[in-house]
Amino acid sequence: VKIKEPIPAIENNCTTGEIIYIDRFGNLISNIKEERLPGGKIEISINTTKIPALSKKYSNGKTNEPIALINSGFKTLEICLNRGNASSFLNYGIGEKITVRGENG
What we know:
By secondary structure, the chain is mainly beta. Helix content is 5%, strand content 39%. Strand 1 and strand 2 form a beta hairpin. The chain is globular. It starts with 8 loop residues before the first strand and ends with a strand.
């Protein structure tokens, strides 16, 4: 049995996807591939949480401050917490919508 992964929607420099997996560290893994991100400066929104830019590594985050990055394995957008569990801290799970807006989106 193959499970069909939801495809992110792209419209007006804005990509909307969803959380499809939570890893053992509580990182929220989305279905938004790196190449599907809008160009230029971006803002990531997941429910009421806004993240102003992508980080390069997990350690860039401050305590209790969620960050977004492109994970090295799947090359997809991920929401995480430095030394913490993003899923528990934010109380978000699989199916949660995530939006990435570009400068003009």
